Queue: 2 jobs
Job 1
Amino acid sequence: MRLKTIQVIAALAAAVAFILAFMAAGVLLLSGLFMAAGLAAVGWLAWSLVRQVRRRDRNRTASGSV
């Protein structure tokens, strides 16, 4: 069975589409990992700042300088 030119072109286009789909999925996964890392960093920063403010307030009330 001989393949027609249009069939070969369609097969190549499908191969390119699959490759692009896998690349996009990889980029999406990598982007999601970086987003999670960024959210974790922002969360840690917020938590540490809240902890610092609470510690400062606790020290002020303990020393009586409110």
Job 2
Amino acid sequence: MSVQELDALKFVAELLEATARYIDAEADLEMKYGKSFEEISKETLSPPALLELSKKLSPELFTKLMVVMLRLAALGERVRNVWGMPAEEKKKVASEIKSIAEDLKSFLHDIEVNTR
């Protein structure tokens, strides 16, 4: 087997593992709340829910969350078309997704610190 073939198969194995983690985590969330992830996310990110959240969070924390959400929304179209992109563009999208994830984790950490 060539190095290229081995690399391709390693990628497929990693992709399968990542997909399994995603599906497993989504199933855990759905089992915990008795609703589909789509329902949960629509409820959580609906305008009325965000308005209520804005009343509970400090302006700084709410702004931090809104920046994350806006960045994610702005990236949406590029993510949908990622498989047809050149490799360099895929790297840029991946980097932006990682950055957004880190900012969201930072927001969640701030929430944990402020609710103790």
